[in-house]
Structure formats: structure tokens, C-alpha cells
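Teaching assistant here, posting this on the class forum so everyone can see the example we discussed in section. The complex has two components, and the goal was to see what a joint structure prediction looks like when all of them are supplied at once.
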Amino acid sequence: MGRVAKIARRTFLIGSAAIAGGVAFGVYAVKKDPDNPLSADLSDGSATFNPWVLVDSEKMTLITPHGDKGQGVMSSQAALIAEELDIEFGQFETSFGKPSPAYWNRAFAEEGVPFMATDHGFTAETMRSIMGGVVKLLGVQGTGGSTSMADSFDKLRTAGATARETLKLAASQKSGVPVGQLKTANGAVQLPDGTELKYTELASLAATIEPVKDVKLRDESQWRLIGKSMERLDIIDKSTGTLPYGIDISVEGMLHATVCVNPKKGGSLNGFDASEAKQMRGVKDVIEITDGVAVVADNTWRAFNAMRTISFDWGNATIPPEQEEHWATLSDSFKEELLDSTWRDDGDAEEAFKEGASFSAEYRSPYVAHAPLEPLNAIVLVTDDQVEVWTGHQLQRQLQVLVAAITGHEQDQVILHNQFMGGSFGHRLEFEHVKQAAEIANKMRGTPIKMTYSREEDFAHDFPRHISMGRGQGMVKDGKVTAIDLSLAAPSVMASQGGRANLPFPGPDSQLAAGAWNNPYNIDTYRMTAYRAPELAPTSSWRAVGAPAAGFFFDSLLDELIHEAGADPMEERIRLMGHDVSRKVLETAAELSNWGSDLGPNRGRGVAFVESFGVPVAEVVEVTNTDSGIKIDKVWCVCDVGTIVDPINFENLVQGGVVFGLGHAINSEITYSDGKADQSNYHMHEAMRMYQCPDIIVKGLENGTKIRGIGEPPVPPAAPALANAIFAATGTRLREMPFNKFIDFV
Amino acid sequence: MTEISMVVNGKSVKADVADNTLLVDYIRESLRLTGTHVGCDTSQCGACVVHVDGKAVKSCTMLAASAQGSDVTTIEGLANGDLHPMQAAFKENHGLQCGFCTPGMIMSATDMVARYNASGKELTEEAIRDELEGNICRCTGYHNIVKAIADGASKMTNA
């Protein structure tokens, strides 16, 4: 019963936050929906039925507030609305909308509670509901944690349905035909005699009608769009070079800036000499900003060139300057006073290990950069009345708060024009680049400033994935794994990130051991303990956050124990699995990969299973040990998200997640010397190029009871599945990423 | 300063540029053709590939002055009106996610197909993967890009 007591302690902070919210705002405030932001500037004759649908006499506009960083969520959100609204792709426009509490992310509550995703018990569901109230009260809008589909699935279908029913009421008023005899299709209400009343024709009348609230969502059997592969709405513009990303946007009269901030993390600017830069053609100004310098010029290239001529006197880093000190800090952090939480404590670990462990090992996971292909950028225009920002961002409302704090405006005076993003992987949850643009623009009020990072600045000032260290032990008996016990030490990503975002995360950080504590295995003794190391380099959520590190440790340790026991890696995982949906994921992976068949000489096969963001994922990797190194031949990835909205996009995201996981596990780390990142560009942090990329077979299952997102979950099992395959092929066990420090790859 | 003149997407353009102006900066900043992207500034990522006199070039490694008198095609100028067969293939094969690398992929791919067709060599899947060693995609698993290029190659050949 130790587990119950520990959960009670963990939930205290969240519970008290919820209670404080209840006292401050009352139950009514939690139940009340935020105002519809579309109502504020509605033109005559336009109708809005909820924060996602706007119809006027000319066109229909769907608001898709989750940011699109490539995952295709603009199209998926639109499809959910269109499904119930009975409109087709091509009949509507989309907009990312204005930041608003109306777009609070109800799925953020899922990850915020310390319960396993497979736990649907009363306490877990009650806590999720309470957390949902807190997220709603705070109006937290954001894209992350693979939550977009979970947040949107019911909400946006309901938005489409309520809009449709209100338009039917308008059609009934106009035609005199009872609502019950009306049908909808193709953006129009159909009368029994075949007459069609287009939604756009009904807009002005619908605007006078109180929107319908209660609707029944259609049964799965009636879906036209969901579950069928869609052509992304952005695919033509992206293929023709006509879709503008933030970095491509021009604003009338804008000047171009770039920054150089002390590359020694946290260090100050003691002085600089920009005399040459100031003389260069096109340079308008050189400005001191927080811990660095900005060059403002008439184009970005001139700003970059001028920056290279500036000499700096930098203060020392405030982080431990050498990488070895970071590892030493982690190594010293496995102690009671730094205990974050015992996240899982099944069975009796003290009893299980009283005579020592049959096996123990240490694992390491390095800092890794996000490095989205579109370098970070933002355009900011500050005037006395308002601030306009053009950038692609995942936390729109927090961006307003942080910009307003710099310029002295109110939050709602900050107007964000959210943009398509050329990747993120978590970096566009951060604010430094936007704050720097705001700092410059605030000094040059009235002039729009476009601030663009060089790739080197992007690497120097990324907030990488946290480093983590794991110490594991286990017991095997009679050919079976009977005990697994992993302790991890890592700095808290959520605390680091939350501190910068003005979103404090109180209490234990479930991401420290995510991917390790939450796997639905039934192992006699299963203990996962996290120690919170002090912050070293500031870190941020990197695709899948905690699970790429902790999942690597956990599954590698489990694989080692299975080999100790002399059991089959697949069969033993299936035997230990205590969750039907997850067991089916493993069994399907075994079947598809023809697990157990003879591979021939110099080849090896590995499996890994890691659950993250509520999604069970199994990956099987096959490798060949060639004369010039390991060749990754083929990968099978099986996952269960409950409902797949867009199969082709799902497959693409899974393949991308596998490659992201494999590539960084093989090739990438950020290390620090003299407080500076040693890696400055892609050649020093390669991830995976096309020639290394294996064949990847994807199978999505839909047995889960809740819809989940797939952006992140395929990443964590990739590294352990590869390490396990390499062990099978070579007998060499890789316990530290990146693997290319220890073994060559073809 | 150097006076340069060239043809970009079928239009004659002239400008007075600093000697060290890169072709990509001239294209993006002076001509405002922003479909050609800059991802790394150091010729590693391939987002900036354009055609200069029919050959694929990373435009962040070439001076604008070196393109003097050349015929330059960017992603915006690839198609005559509708979609180029390779663009259609990316659309049909879901060959992108964030799409920031896509213009470079497509410009590299059309050059690759033209070269293989001219030499009579077969453009195998392995050849496509080797040829695109210099183009980084951070989002996709590369598969649909490879599929799109194979499909685009057959569309171009049969066009």
C-alpha cells in the first residue's frame, strides 16, 4: 500500500492549487465558459457560434488555435470541425486566431496529474477533472505534450455541430420548414424540395439567433473525414514555396536585426566594440540588450555580417563550465534530500534486494538540441497603444504576458499573429528570441523589427533536452524477471521551462522519470525513484520530454534483465505486460516483424516498449553488423492512440518520430566547455540524414479508450530498441547516448 | 559593389550588390522570393537549393556575383502555371511536414531526375537516398520524400 500513501503526498500540491482556485473563483467560474473572442470584432452580418467558427456572406473561417509546427494539426483541427459542420476541404479558410482563454487546453490536465494513463479509477479521474478546472481558470492555451487531438477531438466536433444546428435554425426561420426536415451537406442546408441554402447566405440571419448548445455528436459509422487520409491544407503552398513562415514575413517599414548573447550560459556582457560594425553599409544601430548585443540593419544578411565584426568582453558562465562537472553533479544527486518522488513502488523492493541484486548498471542520456530547420525569429512592432508580434509560437498567451512585461503594456494589448512554424521539437515553447525582439523594438518604437537568429545563435542559446543519469538493478529467477528498480537523477525540465514561461510547476516533476514509472507492466517488484538534481544548463521540453532519457534507461535495463534470465526479449515483455491494449501492441509488433525468425549471421533484432503521453508504443529494430559499422536495416513501430484521425499524417508522424529518436540516439549531443555549447551547427549535431534512414513499417491500433496524440510517443522506444538490437548483433551493450561515441554506424 | 544582372524565373533582374552578397540573400532579401530557405547558412541543410543554369546549387554557398549572366530558377519559378510534376508528387505522397526543407528537396530532386535521365541511369530508391545526403529534413521519416521523388521522376519522364 506504499503506493497509495505516496500518491496522496504528491497530489497535495495540485489539490491545494485546485482548492485555491475554487475559493478564489467559485464553482460558477470553473463552469462558466470564457467569452468567444470572435464576438469582439464581429462585422455586421457575420455569425459566430463558438470560438472556432465564423461565417459571413462571403466565406467560412475555421479557427485552428493549436499551432502548426509541421505536425499537420491545422488540417486535423479543421477536419474535426468540418466533419460535423458538413463542409468540405476547399470550402473554408483557416486562421490560427487570437490568443484567448477560450482556447484553454483541456488535455494539459491529463499530463499534469500523477496517475498512470491506464488508471481510470475514481481518484485519477477526479484529479484530472479538478486539474482541468485549474487549466481552464488560468486560460492556458498551448500546443505540446501531444495533446492537440485529445484536446480538440470532442471540442471541435461539438463546435462544428453547434454551428450546423444553429444554421439549420436560421434556415428553418427563413424557409418555414421545420428543423427536423432539414439536412446539411457541402456547406449548405438542404430543404426537402432539394433547394440549398448556403451557410454564407444564412450568416446574417444566424447571427441573430442564440447558438444551439446541446448537440449529439455523430456516431463513428457516419464519419466522412475522420479516419480517412487527408490532403494537408498547406501542402500545395509548402510545395510551391508560397507559404510564408515567420522568417519569410515582411511588414511595411521593418528593419532587420540579429543578436549575439553571451555564449557562456548565464554570463553577462561586460563590454563590446562595435566601431567597425557601425560603419558598415546598411547598419542602422547597434544596441545593448540583456546579456548581449543586437545589430539593426536594412537586411538580415547585413546584420549578420556586421555582428561578426563586433568584439565582446563576456562575463563567466553561471552554469558549471565543463561537461564533466554536469555529470558529476548528477552522480552526486542520488540522495534523500534531493528525492523528487518515488514514482512507482510495486511490491517490496527492500525485501526483493535484501541479498543484493542479480544485475546492476548505469545509464546516461546527454543534452540534445532542438534545432528546428527554420531558425528562430520574430517580428515585433511596439507603439504606445499596442504591441504586434509576428512569430510562430506554441504558448500564445504566455508570450503576451512576457512581451507585455518588457514593453509595459497590458497583456491584451499584445497582438500575436501566430505563424506556421518550420519545426520546433519544443524550441518554440521558449521565449528568449521573442523577448529579445521585443527589447529591441521597444527601444525603436514605431519601427517593426524582424529579429532572426543565425544557426550558431540558435545552437548556442537552445535550451536543450536535459541530461539524465540512471542507476538500475534487478532480479531474475527461474528464467523470469522478478524485480526492476531504477533511480534517476536529472534536473527538472518543467521547473526550468516553467520558470522562464511564468508558469510555475509546483511539486514533483512527473517528466523526470516519464517513460520509466508509467509503463503498464506487472512486475513483482517495480520501483522507480527520481532525484531532482540542481539546475545546470537551462533545459526545455525536447520532443517527448522525459521519456527519451528515462524510457531508454528503463527499457535497456529490462532488456538486460531479460537476457540475464535467459528469456526471449519479446515473450518476456508480453508475459510481464499488465495492460491489454499494450499487450496487443507488443503482440502486433512481434507478428509484423516475424519475431523469432532466423536473421542470418551478423544480424540482430531488438524490441523496446515505452509508454509516453498515454500512448503505448513498441518498436522492433533490425541491424546488421557490417565491416564498416552498424547498419540499421528496418524498424517496425506499433502504437495505439485510440482513434486515428488522419492515417497518412499518422504514418508520417510515426516515421518522423522514429527517425528523430534513432538519429539523435546515434549522432547527437550538446556538451559544454567554458560554459559554452561545443556544437554550433548541424555538422556537429547531425541526427539522421537520408542515407542512414532505415525502412520503417508503421501500424496504428485503435483499441485504447481515449484519443491520444502521436507527435511524441514514437520517439522514446527508438533508442532502446536500437541498443537492444545492437546487443543482439554484437554482444556490446550501449548504455549511453549518443551511440557513435562507442560504435560506428554505416 | 558589383553590378549584377541575371534571369530569375524567366525575368531579367539587375542590381548593385556588395561583392560578398550570397546568392540566397539576393534572392530572399532583394527579390523577395522567400520560398528559397536558409536553415544553416553553411551548406549543410540544403533548404536553399536553386537551379543555376539548370544545375542544383546551394545558394548559400554561391556569391550573387558568381551568378552574373546566369539563368536562375527558384521553387517559385519551377512550374509553368500549375504544379510541376515533382510538386504534384510531393502533394500526392504527403511528402512533407513542416515543409521548410521542401523547396530544397524539390529543387534537388528535379535536378537529380534530369541528370539521371540525361545519362540514361536508373534512379533507384538507393540512388535517391544517396543523392539527398545534403538535404536535411528534421520532421519526416524521409520515406514519403523518397516516394514522392520516385513518383515525381516517373511523372517527369512521362510528362
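For the discussion questions: Residues 1-24 of chain A have pLDDT under 50 and may be disordered. The domain at 33-105+140-238 of chain A is CATH 3.30.365.10 (Aldehyde Oxidoreductase; domain 4). Think about how each of these relates to the inputs above.
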